[in-house]
């Protein structure tokens, strides 16, 4: 930090006065009027008229003559200097005021904010730390100054420093205001510190303060991200009780949180409330409701809702809605519906992900449609999408249950070595009576350095030849359990 800020001691006020006496450029003028009140009013008027140089000349002339401008005039002069980018001069005035014990919380707020804007948050924090280290100065630092510091760090999204100011505030016996907690809650939520936001909001309520709309909107976001749907719902109701209108984003957040908790009825009640408030449901709203139905295993109802909203005039469908409804198709085994939706996605130029193809292949698996699943898989590869382990496992299972042995083996050959995939193939072969092929795959699996799971080992042991103990021991050695 600049040493002009770091060492704000009383010696600077005397050096400032010395500079005033010796410099012809300081604009010292002869004062015909010697009344401090009258001169202070002149400084105040010139400062308000945004004439900092004229106001400064009177201030210096008064100081040179041993006169003291009043607090109001000094603060107004500081504000005018800072508005015009004259920070260095303002700091000298501030030091002089501080030495004369002519400062208030407003003075500190002005100078701290200016230092932060011109020289960064760290410089402002260093100055603040120096101020509160002095007992005499600390007693003059009111809640407005703390709020200024919190707002400085809020602007920079520095939640850690905002939390630090909050802690210092509490330790020094200060009580936060509505502004304090609004700044804290909104900053913490914006920076993803939801637990801190909830702590600040809870303290605010314990202190008997009534939160404003911005604070309540922010805390709804914090509660929903932490899965506390009941608390979010209570805040939403509190807003309504206080005749505050929740915005669409808050309603969507509550709907989504309730849906994740399987509270379908409440989700739709908030949706109706959202409409009554004049908010039009968007893609996020619909996806939240569809997810709510899926989580409650009400897949058919999700499909019915999807058919209702797919009208182009009602909502623009996005990839999230399509993937959600593909999940419904997967659970119900509606392979034909899933394939139809997949083609619609491609035709609409909506980006189709690997997850989308997985849901369609999963629907084919549930419906025991191995050939369709393979067609979707080949389509996926042609579209330059790389299958993941979920794709391959689903494809492996559907091929085995569809007696497509060659295709199952081909999948293993074309895939990177994976123990889970081999375990699924071996277990499926055993269960469908392809014992020899299962043993062959087991040997291949061990040769590739992959580990069988407990179920695979048990199946191998159960299917060893039952001739003699010697043969059993020989086979155990052969298959390298």
Annotation keywords:
481 residues, 73% helix, disordered N terminus, mainly alpha, 29 helices
Please outline what is shown here.
This is Pentatricopeptide repeat-containing protein At3g29290 isoform X2. Belongs to the PPR family. P subfamily. By secondary structure, the protein is mainly α.
Number of helices: 29
User: Helicity range of the residues?
Assistant: over 70%
Question: Structural class, please?
Answer: mainly alpha
Q: Please mark out the parts with pLDDT under 50 across 5 or more consecutive residues, or reply none.
A: 1-25, 467-472
Distance between the termini: 68 Å
- Secondary-structure element series: HHHHHHHHHHHHHHHHHHHHHHHHHHHHH
Give the percentage of residues in beta strands: under 5%
For the sheet with most strands, the description reads: none
Overall geometry:
elongated
Q: What is the β-strand count?
A: 0
Gyration radius from CA atoms, angstroms: 36 Å
Global mean pLDDT: 87
Keywords: Repeat
Protein name: Pentatricopeptide repeat-containing protein At3g29290 isoform X2
Family: Belongs to the PPR family. P subfamily.
Organism: Nicotiana tabacum
Q: What is the strand and helix layout of this fold?
A:
Layout lengths: L2 H4 L4 H12 L13 H13 L3 H13 L6 H13 L3 H13 L5 H15 L1 H13 L1 H4 L4 H13 L3 H13 L6 H13 L3 H13 L6 H13 L3 H13 L6 H13 L3 H13 L6 H13 L3 H11 L9 H14 L2 H13 L6 H13 L3 H13 L6 H13 L3 H10 L4 H13 L3 H13 L6 H9 L6 H11 L2
């Amino acid at each position: 930090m600049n040493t002009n800020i770091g060492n704000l001691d009383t010696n600077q006020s005397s050096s400032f006065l010395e500079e005033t006496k010796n410099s012809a450029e300081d604009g010292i003028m002869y004062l015909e009027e010697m009344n401090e009140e009258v001169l202070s009013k002149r400084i105040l008027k010139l400062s308000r008229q945004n004439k900092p140089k004229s106001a400064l000349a009177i201030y210096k002339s008064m100081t040179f003559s041993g006169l003291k401008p009043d607090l109001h005039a000094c603060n107004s002069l500081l504000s005018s200097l800072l508005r015009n980018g004259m920070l260095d001069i303002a700091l000298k005035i501030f030091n002089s005021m501080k030495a004369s014990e002519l400062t208030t919380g407003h003075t500190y707020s002005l100078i701290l904010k200016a230092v932060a804007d011109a020289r960064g948050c760290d410089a402002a924090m260093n100055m603040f730390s120096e101020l509160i280290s002095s007992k005499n100065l600390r007693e003059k630092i009111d809640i407005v100054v703390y709020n200024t510091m919190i707002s400085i760090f809020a602007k920079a999204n520095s939640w850690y420093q905002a939390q630090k100011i909050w802690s210092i505030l509490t330790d020094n016996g200060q009580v936060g205001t509505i502004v304090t907690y609004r700044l804290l809650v909104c900053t913490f939520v914006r920076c993803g510190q939801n637990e801190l936001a909830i702590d600040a909001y809870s303290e605010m309520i314990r202190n008997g303060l009534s939160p404003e709309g911005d604070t309540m909107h922010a805390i709804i976001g914090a509660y929903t991200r932490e899965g506390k749907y009941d608390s979010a719902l209570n805040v939403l109701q509190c807003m309504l009780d206080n005749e505050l209108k929740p915005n669409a984003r808050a309603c969507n957040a509550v709907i989504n949180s309730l849906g994740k908790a399987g509270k379908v009825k409440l989700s739709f009640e908030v949706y109706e409330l959202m409409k009554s408030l004049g908010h039009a449901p968007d893609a996020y709203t619909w996806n939240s409701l569809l997810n709510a139905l899926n989580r409650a295993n009400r897949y058919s109802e999700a499909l019915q809702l999807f058919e209702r909203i797919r009208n182009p005039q009602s909502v623009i469908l996005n990839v999230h809605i399509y993937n959600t409804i593909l999940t419904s198709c997967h659970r119900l085994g509606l392979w034909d519906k899933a394939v139809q939706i997949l083609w619609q996605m491609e035709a609409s130029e909506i980006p189709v992900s690997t997850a989308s193809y997985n849901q369609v292949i999963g629907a084919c698996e549930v419906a025991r449609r191995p050939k369709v699943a393979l067609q979707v898989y080949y389509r996926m590869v042609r579209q330059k999408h790389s299958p993941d382990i979920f794709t391959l496992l689903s494809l492996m299972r559907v091929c085995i249950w569809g007696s497509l042995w060659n295709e199952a083996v081909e999948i293993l050959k074309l895939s990177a070595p994976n123990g889970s995939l081999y375990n699924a193939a071996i277990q499926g072969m055993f269960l469908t009576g392809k014992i020899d092929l299962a043993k062959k795959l087991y040997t291949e699996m061990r040769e590739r350095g992959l580990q069988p799971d407990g179920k695979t080992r048990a199946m191998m042991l159960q299917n060893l030849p039952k001739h003699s103990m010697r043969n059993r021991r020989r086979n155990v050695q052969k298959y390298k359990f």
